[in-house]
Design brief:
This protein is of the alpha/beta class. The protein is 35% helix and 14% strand. The chain has 2 domains: 11-118 and 292-304, no CATH class; 131-289, Glycogen Phosphorylase B (Rossmann fold, 3-Layer(aba) Sandwich). The chain is globular.
Length: 311
């Protein structure tokens, strides 16, 4: 199992079946929803009701949204009952951060493992392109940001703040914006719509000097891994599992929400030059975030839990 929320499955029916079938289950969590009364993340608003029992949810309109009723207290009680009735569940998390939260939740009786996300290293690799020429930014130091959906949680406002304090030698490039968001950008930010071409995305990662991820809450973002694999150093806020992919040889971790610290670290990479980080970034991606290696981690776990048939 992976994500089972979003109102597309009857979780009680599913877990009743799993209990009756008495089969080993591997459940990979991609956010905090399984042990909260409603929300997928709670870092941004600093809520810790999930530790004892949710009620009066301050994020009931957030994904997965509940437009009218606050069902957080009931949902919490029901999840605790439903999810704890299975005898043989192994919970996998992509980050140490999420694993620690699970160990402090009502799911802590289960075996908890960490298997990082993996990416395709054959596609996300240092790639030559005409990206800089096409956008007339050949001589700029490029700060890149990439998101599937740019919302407050992903830190779009921090790029706008950066645009006010950088000089003309630096260009911010953001990928994944809506048309409305593009139209409301400062002039020194280049906005690009979501691309469906991962080859094009690899070219953009490779063209950037630094990848900045000012996320305010996240599990283990694959954008960080994609940037590293393309040889581009990463700077992220100290939030969620995002810092776990970074060491000082391939990027830096900034204080959460501290725009001055973020700029200082960006300028340090600008001063040092991207080239001193590229080899280390790629090596870290090869050693830790190969998609094929992470698949093997799962297969090894399936074998240990007798999930694979031999016939």
């Amino acid at each position: 199992m992976h994500n089972i929320h979003g109102y597309y499955i009857n979780i009680e029916l599913q877990f009743n079946y799993l209990k009756e079938a008495n089969k080993p289950v591997i459940w990979t969590l991609h956010d905090c929803w399984p042990f909260t009364g409603h929300c997928a993340y709670f870092d941004y608003i600093g809520c810790d009701k999930w530790k004892m029992g949710c009620y009066d949810c301050p994020q009931k309109n957030k994904y997965p949204s509940s437009l009218f009723l606050d069902m957080s207290k009931k949902n919490y009680i029901e999840k605790k009952r439903i999810f704890n009735q299975i005898g043989n569940i192994t919970i996998v998390t992509p980050s140490e951060w999420l694993a620690k939260l699970v160990k402090n939740s009502f799911l802590n009786k289960y075996d908890i493992r960490v298997i990082n996300n993996g990416i395709n290293l054959d596609i996300f690799k240092p790639t030559m392109s005409d990206f800089r020429v096409n956008y007339n930014i050949e001589d700029k130091f490029i700060i890149l940001g990439v998101a599937n959906i740019w919302d407050e949680r992903k830190g779009l406002n921090y790029f706008k703040q950066l645009s006010d304090i950088i000089d003309d030698s630096i260009k911010i490039v953001l990928v994944g914006l809506s048309e409305e968001q593009k139209n409301n950008l400062p002039k020194n930010i280049l906005g690009i719509n979501k691309t469906n071409s991962i080859q094009e995305l690899a070219q953009i990662y490779s063209s950037a000097d630094v990848f900045v991820n000012p996320t305010l809450e996240d599990n283990f973002p694959t954008t960080n891994l994609e940037a590293l694999s393309c040889g581009t150093p990463v700077i992220t806020f100290n939030t969620g599992g995002s810092p776990e992919c970074v060491d000082n040889s391939c990027g830096f971790v900034a204080d959460k929400g501290n725009i001055n610290d973020l700029l200082k670290l960006i300028l340090e990479i600008k001063y040092n030059g991207k080239e001193i980080y590229t080899k280390h970034c790629r090596k870290r991606a090869e050693e830790k975030y190969s998609r094929d290696d992470r698949y093997l981690d799962y297969i090894d776990l399936y074998n240990k839990k007798n999930l694979l048939r031999n016939d």
